[in-house]
Specification:
heterodimer; A: 137 residues; alpha/beta; 5-stranded parallel beta sheet; 36% helix; B: 235 residues; alpha+beta; 5-stranded mixed beta sheet; 6 helices; 7 strands; globular
């Protein structure tokens, strides 16, 4: 069964275009405008995403707080889902404290990079290959 | 003092970078999706519906960028000697109505009566600059208003024209009520409410260059009212 891609971004335009892009490529996408609603969804465990792409700078709970919170709930199936943090800020300095396995996606991103990132994780479900050792896109 | 100024400047640069790159992200993905569809020979790419959608979304992102760049240019102009003001007689009530109608779809909060009072009043002002001030106040009321209705009043009283924009939003702490009119300052962290944090600074400069004044009355948790007073035409 194909797993959805979860997108969390407070900017409606960015969220919608990422959703449209990935849906056009045949992926199921679930999008949230805030991290708390996304956490509630993940806690319910109805659908476990193949990948979560979370924006760094968001009102309420930001991307870093979201990742830390998700990873603390080890009983949730979603706590081990691969994560990418996207950011339009100048540097990723603030994300240095995040685990190494969290990918960094710089905005504005290349379409190819976004598709490559997503397909590497969606293929991973089938062939268990893992994306390259470079963790910054 | 210098350290504080440098802190705010650096924070502004970081916010500006974020604010500029966000519409660029949408714009870039839109154009690349189209390019990809064309390269794949997808006939859908040329459909009227698809092109209409692409163009209107691209237009929106360009508008966002233009507003950001305009604000940044204004800051530069203000620093190097002020902005030019070309006064003409303007029906303030009509201008306020125009600003509300321009953004009505965005502002719609379920309450159709944004304009609560609208006295007919003429002032002498730079129409474009005053439109910028009014739009800025409306935008702030919408963004800081927690999705609750906000209201506008245009009054002619005590020899002045007064515009007040009231929201039922988060309110502003007493210590922040002057700070928000300063360059690069804001009352809430950038991550909470997007924007460059320049709007009210520019608004005050524009209003003062019309011999007017702007201030805020607020109660934390209950909302804020931004008030602009301007001399009537001929005064």
């Amino acid at each position: 069964m194909n797993r959805p891609i979860l997108i969390i971004d407070d900017d409606e335009d960015v969220r919608e275009i990422m959703k449209f892009t990935l849906e056009t490529e045949g992926h199921e996408v679930i999008a949230f405008s805030g991290a708390i609603a996304a956490l509630e969804f993940l806690q319910r465990g109805e659908k476990i995403p193949a990948l979560i792409i979370v924006d760094y700078l968001m009102p309420g709970m930001d991307g870093i707080e979201f990742i830390k919170e998700l990873r603390t709930h080890q009983s949730w199936e979603a706590s081990t889902v691969p994560l990418a943090i996207s950011s339009a800020t100048d540097t990723f300095e603030a994300t240095a404290e995040l685990p190494d396995d969290v990918l960094r996606l710089c905005k504005p991103m290349e379409l190819d990079d976004l598709l490559k990132l997503v397909s590497s994780f969606t293929h991973r479900q089938h062939d268990s290959s893992f994306p390259g050792d470079e963790n910054r896109i | 003092m210098l350290e504080e100024a440098l802190f705010y400047r650096d924070e502004f640069l970081s916010i500006a970078s974020h604010e500029l790159k966000t519409p660029l992200t949408a714009l870039k993905l839109q154009s690349q999706i189209f390019k990809r569809a064309v390269a794949k020979g997808d006939p859908e790419a040329y459909s009227k519906e698809r092109i209409d959608r692409l163009m209107s979304e691209a237009d929106r992102q360009v508008d966002r960028l233009v507003r950001l760049v305009d604000d940044m240019l204004d800051i530069s102009r203000l620093r190097t000697g002020g902005i030019s003001i070309n006064k003409e007689p303007v029906q303030l009530h009509d201008l306020v109505k125009y600003c509300i109608s321009r953004h009505l779809q965005q502002f719609y909060t379920g309450d159709s009566e944004i304009l609560r009072r609208c006295d007919e009043v003429t002032i002498s002002c730079d129409r474009q600059r005053m439109e910028q001030v009014i739009s800025n106040l409306l935008n702030n009321a919408y963004r800081y208003g927690r999705g609750r209705p906000f209201h506008v009043e245009v009054e002619k009283r005590d020899g002045v024209a007064r515009i007040s924009v009231s929201d039922e939003g988060i309110g502003i702490a007493p210590e922040d009520r002057e700070k928000i009119f300063e360059r690069f300052k804001r009352s809430v962290p950038a991550r909470e409410i997007s924007g460059l944090g320049l709007g009210l600074y520019i608004a005050r400069q524009v209003v003062e260059s019309h011999e007017g004044c702007i201030w805020v009355e607020s109660e934390l948790g209950k909302g804020s009212t931004f008030i602009v007073e301007l001399p009537l035409e001929g005064k």
